[in-house]
Design brief:
Elements lengths: L4 E5 L3 H13 L3 E5 L2 H10 L4 E5 L1 E2 L2 E2 H10 L6 E5 L4 H9 L4 E4 L4 H14 L10 E6 L2 E4 L4 E3 L5 E2 L3 H7 L6 E2 L1 H8 L9 H15 L7 E4 L3 E4 L4 E5 L2
Parallel strand pairs: 1-2, 1-3, 3-6, 6-7
Antiparallel strand pairs: 4-5, 8-9, 8-15, 9-10, 10-11, 12-14, 13-14
Helix pairs in contact: 4-8, 6-8
């Protein structure tokens, strides 16, 4: 059984110690880092399943590091920790590819719940290596097992975990922001409805690169609708 390894990145030694102790009690393996440079070293030398990344680090910004990792096509899930109070700062984090965020101060129990939710998005018991279902829409092919999307020209579209989950959320139905938050990562008092708008905007931009028409429709006073027709491609592999 694979035990997820979490990389905790924070320049506060006490926070690192606290989180390491609590996460180990919750059954995770933990590595620690205090700088951006150490993050790259850990990624290069270890199998990291998720990064808990503070925004303010001594040798750079966690936001810049998150952006750089995504531009380098790293798909390691990232949860940002931020002491910043403005909603716009959290939205920027989502726009550059973070999978989730949590404001300081926070309860370690809530962070672990967020970690489990993000990791769970990458695991679907319905798909095994003996067979899988893929989805075809507007010439795109989405593979839940590989968590990949290929455009009509055969190019791979890089999506974060949150983007991929949103893409496959109940095609055809009009869903409110609250429903989408429930379905993609759960509700709590710290979640912003605006975060769904950011995810939809990112998906629209990335899928538009494939030359397709608008797939997500905005429904006034309703929310969003995945309007493309979806068909299943069943295959043995």
């Amino acid at each position: 059984m694979h035990i997820p390894q979490i990389l905790v990145v924070d320049d506060d030694l006490e926070i690192r110690k606290l989180l390491a102790r609590y996460m180990k009690e919750q059954g995770f393996r933990v590595q620690l880092a205090s700088k951006c440079a150490e993050v790259r070293e850990r990624i290069a030398t270890s199998q990291i399943d998720l990064i808990v990344l503070d925004v303010m680090l001594p040798d750079g910004s966690g936001l810049d590091l998150c952006r750089d990792l995504r531009s380098e096509r790293s798909n390691v899930p990232i949860i940002l920790l931020t002491a910043l109070k403005e909603d716009v700062d959290r939205i920027i984090g989502l726009e550059i590819g973070a999978d989730d965020y949590l404001g300081k101060p926070f309860n370690p129990r809530e962070l672990v719940a967020r970690i489990r939710a993000v990791l769970r998005r990458g695991q679907d018991d319905r798909f095994t290596r003996n067979g899988r279902v893929r989805y075809l829409f507007e010439g795109f092919v989405a593979d839940p097992f590989a968590r990949s999307v290929v455009d009509p020209d055969g190019g791979n579209i890089e999506l974060t975990g949150a983007e991929f989950d949103l893409l496959l959320t109940r095609p055809g139905r009009v869903l409110s922001r609250d429903q989408l938050l429930d379905l993609t990562r759960g509700r709590d008092e710290d979640v912003l409805d605006r975060s769904i708008d950011v995810l939809v905007s990112r998906l629209r931009r990335k899928l538009a690169l494939g030359g397709t028409a608008q797939i997500f429709k905005t429904v006034r006073n309703g929310g969003y609708q995945f309007a493309a027709k979806v068909t299943h491609l069943d295959e043995r592999i």
